[in-house]
Amino acid sequence: MKTRKTIKAAAILAVVLGVIGASAPAGAEEPEGMRASYKAGDGLKIGDGDNLVHIQGRIQPRFTYDALEGAPDKDTWAVQRGKIKIEGFTLKKKVRFGFQMNLATRSGATTSPVCTDAGCTTTVNAVTRDTTTGLATLEDYYVDYVPYDFFAVKVGQFKVPFLMQELTSSGKQQFVDRALATGHFNLARDLGITFHGDLWEHGLNYNVFFMNGDGINTINRNQSLIAGLRLELPILGEYKPSESDTDDSQEHNLGIGIGYNFNDLGSAFVNGTVPAGARLSLGTLDVGWKYKGWSIQTAGMISRSHEILKITNFGWLAQIGYFFVPKKFEVALRTDGTVFSDAIANQYEHQVALNYFILGHGLKVQTDYALLMNVRGLNSNDHRFRTQLQLIF
Predict the structure, then answer these.
(1) Is residue 30 in some structural domain?
(2) Which of 7, 29, 40, 291 has the greatest number of CB atoms lying within 10 Å of its CB?
């Protein structure tokens, strides 16, 4: 009995395999397997064309020296950023995903004088508040469904599509870090959704987004959201979030971007000048250009609170760079500032940078000097020197 069943099963299996073999087109090739490739300055890629996982690490060891007016100088070594990123796509590139963690040097704790005896005749400085910075932080965690070039939906935690310099990775900056003014108007990362795409064969890029408004890894504390729009128009060539013309572009790349968002009952913004709970509008306009080692990036920013204290703040940045040795040595200049409408002193930053690119942005050494005006208070003019190595692996 068992022998007959075995023979019958084998016969059925043979018929099925025969049908499958007959239905396959003559000369059909087997699908290619997964391939892995590693590139210094970019990381590891594993994929088969329709599916891809890109694993990348980035480290930024930095030395900073601050010459402070009317205060002791400071110097410090830090790992400013230590990032692990996984991104890629699947289902014939229609589903894209991203994940990124950041590990960095812990910021200084807050210290205060503490009595050492009952009469408090002597005191010592003791830590009164520690910091959680420097711990592993979840930055990006999203899924992006892209059924068409002109329409896609991205949901999860990611950078709010607003300021161009924030959308430009910290690994692709022309200076050691972003401008002071960018930090005042920046929305950074948040949780939410954006509808995006490229219209008219990449003639116009758009993002329409709705976010919590409370920053990364935080559940929305009310029923209000940030709602906004960003448009990017590449006039000539491409307008990509990357500073410095590391490719020595032989064609002009010129683009313009504009963004607006409305924050309903948001957190404090713009250096604390706009109180939490105020309805706030933020706007920006940016222009970028690259050609034969030259690069220019400019941006204007504005914030306006609509209730409580009606406050309007303005910010700007302008920077220019040139490779005096193509793709290797670059010098850059930047000026930026923020004009506050209340009693806070307006703040300004003037910088010069010298950059050495070994493997493009993948391996580079950057050094910059900045004159910081009114950053620590009215009429305080400080000097800052920074040197940073970046390695992407």
Answers:
(1) no
(2) 291
Does some domain include residue 265? yes
Q: Which long-range contacts (CB under 8 A, 24 or more apart) does 295-301 make?
A: 295/174, 295/243, 295/244, 295/245, 295/320, 295/321, 295/322, 296/320, 296/321, 297/164, 297/165, 297/174, 297/243, 299/163, 299/164, 299/165, 299/182, 301/163, 301/181, 301/182, 301/184, 301/185
Domain count, the chain: 1
Within a domain: 284: yes
Question: Could you tell me the two tokens for 139?
Answer: 């930055």
Can you give the CATH number for the domain in which 350 is found? Answer: 2.40.160.10
What is the pLDDT tens value at each position of the chain, 393 positions in all?
A: 444 444 444 444 343 334 334 434 444 444 467 899 999 899 999 999 899 999 999 999 999 999 999 999 999 999 999 999 999 999 999 999 999 999 888 766 555 555 555 556 665 555 545 555 567 889 999 999 999 999 999 999 999 999 999 999 999 999 999 999 999 999 899 999 999 999 987 789 999 999 998 888 988 877 788 999 999 999 999 999 999 999 999 999 999 999 999 987 666 667 677 777 778 899 999 999 999 999 999 999 999 988 767 889 999 999 999 999 999 999 999 999 999 987 678 999 999 999 999 999 999 999 999 999 999 888 899 999 999 999 999
Take residue 180 and report the two structure tokens written for it: 């002071």
Residue 147 within any structural domain of the chain: no
Please name the residues in contact with 359: beta carbons below 8 A apart, sequence gap of 6 or more: 40, 41
